[in-house]
Amino acid sequence: MANQNRLEQDIETLRNISDPCDGGVTRIGLTPRYRQGVNYIKAQMQAVGLTIREDEVGNVYGIMQGTHPTLPSIISGSHLDTVKNAGAFDGIAGVVCALEVARMLKEQNIQLKHNYEVVAFVEEEGTHFGTVLLGSRYITGELNEVDKDRLRNDEGQTLRQILQQYSTGVTTISAKRDPQTIKAFLELHDEQGPVLEATKTDIGIVDNIVAIGQLVITITGFAGHAGTVPMTMRQDAGIAGCQFVSHLNQYTLRKYAEQATLTVGKFSLSPNSANTIPNQCTFTLDIRSGDEKIVHNIIKHVSSLALIINDEFNVVCEVKQVSFKDPVVMDSGLRQLLQATAEDLGLSVRHLNSGAGHDAMIMSGICPTAMIFIPCYKGITHHPDENVTWQDMAKGTDVLFNTIIQLDKK
Amino acid sequence: MANQNRLEQDIETLRNISDPCDGGVTRIGLTPRYRQGVNYIKAQMQAVGLTIREDEVGNVYGIMQGTHPTLPSIISGSHLDTVKNAGAFDGIAGVVCALEVARMLKEQNIQLKHNYEVVAFVEEEGTHFGTVLLGSRYITGELNEVDKDRLRNDEGQTLRQILQQYSTGVTTISAKRDPQTIKAFLELHDEQGPVLEATKTDIGIVDNIVAIGQLVITITGFAGHAGTVPMTMRQDAGIAGCQFVSHLNQYTLRKYAEQATLTVGKFSLSPNSANTIPNQCTFTLDIRSGDEKIVHNIIKHVSSLALIINDEFNVVCEVKQVSFKDPVVMDSGLRQLLQATAEDLGLSVRHLNSGAGHDAMIMSGICPTAMIFIPCYKGITHHPDENVTWQDMAKGTDVLFNTIIQLDKK
């Protein structure tokens, strides 16, 4: 069994390695504060006897050598960086639980055939350079030398300049990994959503990381004085926008309540004056589903709806697709193994999609990959109130531990 | 018949007396530029032989003495100030047409029994001191000496300080009028709405200046990640707001399409991030009707709707009434006289409510008051594109002229 006290000790220590902020944790990748966090994790890794490796961009590994060290590694971990004023679990829980697995292996004198690597990815949140999943994208080779001069922080410094300050004398080990060196990657993460908690489920197994369509809708009408233009003669872009959103929301709920999410995160009117009929309304649509066909269906509906709104409100809707990300399927063998392991431990399991991106999404490009979700309080994340119980962390660690042992035999 | 060339000459001259702006007119009350506009109007008044009077706050009168100068005056006019980057007709048309009536009386050697006063109110728009209808409110006594020290412009100068710069050596005549000195006030104004133009009507007669209820609705939900919180588990303040607005709009259209206006001019989300479920939505409601009971009914519906939205979206709607202005009824005798006069001239007439406030609203507190609306292009106002045809201005002036002659006989 995982040791809850050790999990708590790691999380609480890292919670306190933070730049000053509003009650949460701020430990942005490749900053002096991040180095402090890395130093703590490295010390814990060394205490278990792991061999430390830090690559050129700051990803940190703690390696437990297997009895057959030429076999590819089993890797587990997550990211150690945070957004500004974050909670203490997003990413960190995955690193800490993978580290706990190493402790358990040592404690129980279990010798794996494969190397077991605990990884702490850097800059997953993208807070420092505006590029999410930076560490894992260097590992897969999606980012490379060129990007070190291209990527700049808010102060205009390049990634290369920051790395020189951050890593001086530490490492020049290439980040890019040969896929042949990895047997599997397992990432444990708090759900960042409310489903597991609400359904009293111990363990979530991620099937897909969802497809994401992002659109911006701009509706142009005609401004007028609130008191002098009769309602029937208006070209009110704001009312048209509210109707558009209401209709699309109802459609998505009716057809895809369990399979997709539609989010209108930004919505603004122009001129945004209490006594002026808005001549322009702009809003964003964020459409996600494990099934990319559903995202396409909803986008198709958006286009049809635009025509109806144009006609009904005498406005012009412009529909602009900003981006489309294909879904990423997790490895089915690993998913089955996770499920069997969790059930053997008597834990309840739920399959779900990950609506957020994770390093696992990137790693799946070079190796079999799967994710374990553990419940988090009310689904709150990127907020000081993010919370995971030590018991749930321990359950997740146990699943990870047993899965790695099973995987090692294959 | 009114002389269209003279009307054009006045409007175009005043259009060019403007501070630099984006294609429109900027002549804010009590500024040096405003003094230039006043000087032009005074010169025109003097050319017709009117006696000039400028009061302590900058309202300007041109008085044509009647054969029975102890009788109360018939007054007509409007305001000479503009908003920033305004059109050339809002307010100005009423001053210019009233001035043209004086020219027509002189031209036709008509001697009225009553004094006829052409008035140019100051600071109706409230652009300088944030207080609308300033000039007329000094005339009725609603504003007084105390307000000269209380009202401040954006630079922190008091109205008294600005008046000292503006009026030095010009006048100390009290603005406040004894109601006994006024027989009637008639204000001609462009409609600032699209109804007369769309219905091809020559003359609008204002029945009421509408009651106005202004509310702010704040909806509080719960934030979450766009990808990780299933739609059925959300407390999405933005979707709740859009549904609220859509529903209320449909209700108002269904019940009061011709009798009321509902405007949602401001609408905002928090945190207003594309991939975050909004935890707060705030919007304004501007509800107007000639019948204050209808405004109250709609406000009552808002409260009921808030309860439904709370229940349906698991949010909390706070309904705050910011202000309520009672409707102002125009004098029925004057309205009948205006209608009879317009019909005698073979002009089409439509009764409507004024959805905007006007000096007439204030003047009605101390004397019988009525308003003539003339068509304006697409209802555009407070914009450089505001436009009124010279023909429509002339028709309005003819109605004003004939009404004043009839009124003089009573």
UniProtKB/TrEMBL annotation, chains A, B:
Which SUPFAM superfamilies does its entry note?
A: Bacterial exopeptidase dimerisation domain, Zn-dependent exopeptidases
Metal-binding listed as a keyword: yes
Question: Which cofactors go with this protein?
Answer: Zn(2+)
Leader peptide range in chain numbering = none
State the free-text cofactor note.
Binds 2 Zn(2+) ions per subunit.
> Which residue range or ranges hold the Peptidase M20 dimerisation domain?
214-302
**GO molecular function annotations of the record:** hydrolase activity, acting on carbon-nitrogen (but not peptide) bonds, in linear amidines; metal ion binding
**Which keywords annotate this record?**
Hydrolase, Metal-binding, Zinc
Q: Which InterPro entries match?
A: Amidase_Cbmase, Bact_exopeptidase_dim_dom, Peptidase_M20, Peptidase_M20_dimer
User: Which parts of the sequence bind Zn(2+) 1?
Assistant: 79, 90, 189
A Pfam family cross-referenced in the UniProt record is: Peptidase_M20
Q: Which Gene3D superfamilies match?
A: 3.30.70.360, Zn peptidases (3.40.630.10)
Binding residue positions for Zn(2+) 2: 90, 125, 382
The text of the family note is: Belongs to the peptidase M20 family.
Under which name does UniProt file this protein? Zn-dependent hydrolase
